[in-house]
Amino acid sequence: MTDERELLRETVAALVNKHASPEAVRAAMESERGYDESLWRLLCEQVGAAALLVPEEYGGAGGSLADAAVVLEELGKRLVPTPLLGTTLAEVALLAADEPDTETLEQLAEGAAIGAVVFDPDYVVNGDIADIVVSAADGKLTRWTEFSVEPVAAMDPTRRLSRIEPQSSTPLGADPGIADTAAILLAVEQIGAAARCLDLTVDYTKERVQFGRPIGSFQALKHRMADLYVAVQSARAVVDDAVAEPSATTAALARVAASEAFTAVAAEGIQLHGGIAITWEHDMQLYFKRAHGSSQLLGPPREHLRRLESQVL
Q: What pLDDT, in 10s, does the model give residues 12-36?
């Protein structure tokens, strides 16, 4: 990681530590818009989170996918509800248009407008709060200028989903593969959450006492947590490769690896925490729900595995 990205990571981490405590995350996800609007402003004004992938001529920072990944990973660690994923993808889609809309891109980069990209109209991230909606389907990008929105019950309360139906639309151009970018960024978020989930589990096993000693001192549990650490780090390597060299293949690999690692860590976290893990007050149940919700978002792992069949046959 470059010095600039490390500074970016530290800045985001500091904001998250200060403004996204477990209590704040719960308040945000239960709020009318589903996220902390004051934290969103700080991320946009102090970090430029929504401007990272937008070129400077459109009011952005002219950064790369790796820059956006740094921010999303830090937010993923604490399950912070923000409109960043959907907004970033909307920017990528608008930049791919035959004629990029400068005014709209500037609004998105400032955080003054919220974006969403529709891959499946029944499950749209940011759907209920989006000002700018772009559909990616059948190799084409289309901006939905008017649309209706219906909330969808989601397993993960930290990420709201909505059903959107277009009422009027405008063609933008060919789809360069926005779904692959979405898969990579979601995988980055999953890795951040998986790493944090594992940290919480390891810390708890050092505190929970059975038979007069912390359960983390038992050899069998040490082995299980070591296996989880290897799973997370192996998946991180795959995701890092996808961020560095994005393609349909690396995106599919990243989603499979990140989904499997996060699901495994969350399941073990629930078991090792015991009954407290499924109480509303404890964060572990939120990580468990995020793990399973994210694994199905933008296509479950089996769909990404099918995309990889041609690479091994």
A: 999 999 999 999 999 999 999 999 9
Gap between the Cα atoms of 205 and 217, Å rounded? 8
Structure-block tokens of residue 138: 């059948």
Q: What CATH architecture applies to the domain 179-310?
A: Up-down Bundle (1.20)
The H or E element that residue 16 is part of is: helix 3-19
SS3 content of the chain, % helix, strand, coil (to 5): 60, 15, 25
| Residue 35 in tokens | 């996220």
Query: The whole model's pTM is what?
Result: 0.94
Which CATH number is 3-176's, of 1.10.630.10, 1.10.540.10, 1.10.3720.10, 3.40.50.720?
1.10.540.10
Give the per-residue pLDDT at 141.
97
Nearby residues of 279 by Cβ (< 8 Å), 6 or more positions away: 285
